[in-house]
Every structure is written in C-alpha cells, then in structure tokens.
Write a structure and sequence with these properties.
The structure is a single chain. This protein is α/β, with parallel strands linked by helices. It has one domain: Ribosomal Protein S5, domain 2. Strands 3-6-7 form a three-stranded parallel beta sheet, with helices on both faces. The protein has a two-stranded parallel sheet with strand order 1-2. Strands 4-5 form a two-stranded antiparallel sheet. It is elongated, with a radius of gyration of 17 Å. The protein starts with a strand and ends with a helix.
Length: 174
C-alpha cells in the first residue's frame, strides 16, 4: 500500500492510524487485500490553522475506520488525542483551546484522552457546562462514541439501504 502524507508533522499520526486500522481489518470486516491495492492520501492543508500532528491520531483513525467500514462519524462530535500502535489514546496539549474552539464551531460532544482529565479545570465552567465530554482510554472508546451504527439492509430488499427520513438526516448533518 502506498501512502502519501502531506505534512511531516502529521505523517507519524497518519501512519499509526493506517497501521492500526489495517491490524484490525478482520474485526472491522474488511479485506486487507483491497486496502493494499489502494492509495491512502492523508492531506491536511496548511491554511491559517496551526496543527499539532500527534493530536490528530484519533481523528485520522476514525476517518479511516469510517471510510473502510461505511460507518459515518457523528457530525456533532470533535475529537483529539494521540494514538499508539496498540490502540491507546495518549494525552495531548491545548485542551482549553481545543474545547473552546469546538464550542465556537457548534460542537456538542468533545472526545479527549482520559489522561487529560485534569486539564479540564483550565476550561471555564460556563464552557464545560455546554459540552458533553467523552474520556478516551483506547480507540475502541472513540469508535463507540463517534461512529454511527452501520447501515442495515431491509430483509426483503437486499439492495436497499435503510436510511433515516430526510428531516432527520439534515438535522444530524448540522
């Protein structure tokens, strides 16, 4: 499998995410031979937003897991955390700034490394009261909290994918 990683600061996180997802292919229900035939390009444009490479590990892992399993990521959820090759979520810096940015973006749930629990005291109380926090020990906690259930097929119509009514889909995408 070829990997193109757009930023040197993010390349280790992206590589860890790809490796971890590949190691769990059987558990997630996809064939690694198809993945090996594909290119995975992780592009994080520089723009005006500074990025901390290691902090993107959880997000990259979930993006790849979503892509390969067909499960969408909740649109009301933000996440941060470095990941290890064993699936541990490691602590990060800038908790206060990341939580305040999530609130400004209209996010209602923030997933943070459990080892950063003490840093939540730096977040103003009025901001803490506006967010639901999910504390992550392992990437499995992130999967459970952020990935929507797999789409199901109707028993009598195998080619039809079951989806929510349009008004519910729109509400979830905000």
């Amino acid at each position: 499998m070829k990997h193109q990683l757009a930023s040197a600061g993010l390349s280790e996180s992206a590589q860890a995410a790809v490796t971890l997802v590949k190691s769990r292919a059987a558990e997630f229900g996809f064939d690694t031979t198809e993945l090996q035939k594909s290119d995975v390009h992780v592009h994080v444009p520089a723009g005006a937003i500074p990025k901390d490479g290691p902090s993107a590990g959880v997000a990259m892992f979930l993006a790849l897991t979503s892509l390969l399993t067909g499960r969408t990521v909740r649109s009301d959820t933000a996440m941060t955390g470095e990941i290890s090759l064993r699936g541990l979520v490691l602590p990060i810096g800038g908790v206060k700034e990341k939580v305040l940015a999530a609130i400004q973006a209209g996010i209602t749930t923030v997933m943070l490394p459990a080892r950063n629990r003490k840093d939540i005291e730096d977040v103003p109380e009025n901001a803490r009261n506006r967010i639901r926090f999910v504390w992550l020990e392992r990437v499995d906690d992130a999967i459970e909290a952020a990935l929507n259930p797999p789409q199901t097929h109707e028993p009598d119509m195998p080619s039809t994918t079951h989806t929510a009514p349009a008004e519910k889909r729109v509400a979830r995408s905000r």
